[in-house]
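C-alpha cells for monodehydroascorbate reductase (NADH). Go.
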Amino acid sequence: QTIKLTDFGVQGAESNNILYLREIDDADKLVAAMQAKKDGKAVVVGGGYIGLELSAALKINNFDVTMVYPEPWCMPRLFTAGIAHFYEGYYASKGINIVKGTVASGFDADANGDVSVVKLKDGRVLDADIVIVGVGGRPLTGLFKGQVEEDKGGLKTDTFFETSVAGVYAIGDVATFPMKLYNEPRRVEHVDHARKSAEQAVKGDQGQGVRRVRGGVRLPALLLFEVVRCRVAVLRRERWRDGAVRGQRPSGGQAQVRHLLGQGRQGHRCVPRGRLRRRESGHRQGRQGPAAGGRRGGARQGRP
C-alpha cells in the first residue's frame, strides 16, 4: 500500500499532479502529466529507488528537476556515505538539484487545482508543475491480524521465511526476517528480494536446511541516465577483507571493490589498472592495496 502525503494531513497534498508510482494506472497518470506540463518544473519527494529513477526519467524528458529528502544522503538504508556521494554528484552533473535534510510540509495550487508550489519545512519554497512522491509503502497484513506473529510492520519469519504458523511462509517486503548483516530482524522492499526470499523458502520447505543460510537481498543496478557498455570480470570475495578479491581482470580500465552494505567498513576502494593479479596454478591469489607490493607466491605486481 502506497504511503501518501494525505495520510499525514499535509496541507494541499490533494492537489492535481501530485503523483505516486505503484500501479500501471499511476504510470499512465505520470505520462499524461509530463505531456501536459512539457519542459516544466518537477519536484521529486524521496531519495530512494523511485526518487532516483524518476528524477533521471524526468531530466531525460527536459524537466527542471529538484529532489527533496530528509536523510543526509540518498538510499541511506543501502548506500554508505561515500557511494551516495558518487550518485549525488553524478545526478548534480546532469543538472538535478538535490535538497537534503528537509521535507515537504505543504503545497499551493493554481486556479485549476494544479500544484504550483512546494513548501519545505526549512522555509524554502520551490515552484513545481509536477510533484512525484516516493516515500515508501506499507505491507497489507490486515488479513493475518491475530493469526500470525508480526514485527516491524511485517509478518515475522525465520531464516527460511516460515512464519509463526508452521507451513505458512511470507516472502517479499511483507516478511520481517533475521538479517545477519545487521544482527536484527528487518524488512527489505525490493523486487529482487521477493525472488530470493521465495528461493530461500523453497529450500527450507524441501529440508535443505543443513546450512541455514540467512535471508538477504542482492543489490540491484539503478536505472540512471544511459546504458554503459562495459567489460565485466567475475570476482569472489575472500573473508570480507577490504580489497581481497579473486578472479581475472579484463584488459584495460579499472576494477573497483566496494562495501555496499558493510557498516563500519571503508565505503569503497579503487583498484588501479595493473594491480589486480590473476590466480595462478599452485599459488595464492594476490591482493590489491599496500599488501600487494613486492612478490607473493610467484605472482609479480603488474601482471594481468
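Residues 209-223, 227-304 have pLDDT under 50 and may be disordered.
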